[in-house]
Amino acid sequence: MNDPLDPQGELDDAEFAALTELLARPDTELWAELPAGLEDAVVDAITAEATVTPADPVPLDQVRSRRRSSVPWWLSAAAAVAVVVAGVALLTRGGDADAVEFSLTGTEAAPGASAEVVLSATPAGLKILLDADGLPGAPEGTYYEAWLNNGEVSVSAGTFHLRGGSNRIELWAGVVTPDFDRLAITLEPIDGDAGSSGDARLVGTFELRD
User: What is the DSSP pairing of strand 182-189 with strand 200-205?
Assistant: First the structure.
């Protein structure tokens, strides 16, 4: 067994096997969680050193130095690698390099309205985040509907009413091809007709990437 106070000591068989197993794990495991037992191993090592009572008084600076080096060097390195990888996962998951941002402008029917839109292609379809400004709540008996259009075909991307305020709205569409490059928000009557009324209140164009 190597000296626990020597951070450069050689690994014994158990330590070498544990380190080999950790480094052989695929990246996806490190993204999900820290290696099993890592936290307990660090705590046990620190606790074991803290319970040692030296025969002679030891200066405080030496005690601190020994406690810092009580954890085997390979265990400290493994913990550092795991923490760094987890941090990268948290930083990169929040971004979306493929998102498309654009604006909608109000039509003659809603001249004071506008909206900011963020489109993101996902495995489930096209995610649409709509942040409307100046668009009043739909009157009772009506609702707003989002439509994607390619110049010939319109596909519904969901409905909303805004009667409770103009918070960001999350909509979805099942088309993600570059052919669809227009988004319109129409006012629809509740009449059982699934087609567009053509009463557009917000319109805009965008460009999807292949």
Answer: antiparallel
Contact criterion met (CB below 8 Å) for 138 and 187: yes
DSSP assigned state of 70? -
Query: Please, which contacts does 152-160 make with residues 24 or more away whose CB atoms are closer than 8 Å?
Result: 154/184, 154/196, 155/180, 156/194, 157/126, 157/128, 157/183, 158/128, 159/188
Of 93, 118, 151, the domain-final residue: 93
Strands 182-189 and 125-133: unpaired
Per-residue model confidence as pLDDT tens digits over 146-187:
999 998 999 999 999 999 887 789 999 998 888 899 999 999
Q: What pTM did the predictor assign?
A: 0.55
- What is the distance of C-alpha 161 from the center of its chain? 28
Q: Do 45 and 15 contact (CB within 8 A), yes or no?
A: no
For residue 198, give the amino acid letter.
Answer: G
64: containing domain = 13-93
DSSP 11: P
Please check whether residues 106 and 151 belong to one and the same domain: yes
Long-range contacts of residues 134-137, Cβ cutoff 8 Å, at least 24 apart: 134/106, 134/110, 135/106, 135/110, 135/162, 135/166, 135/185, 135/201, 135/202, 136/110, 136/162, 137/161, 137/162, 137/163, 137/164
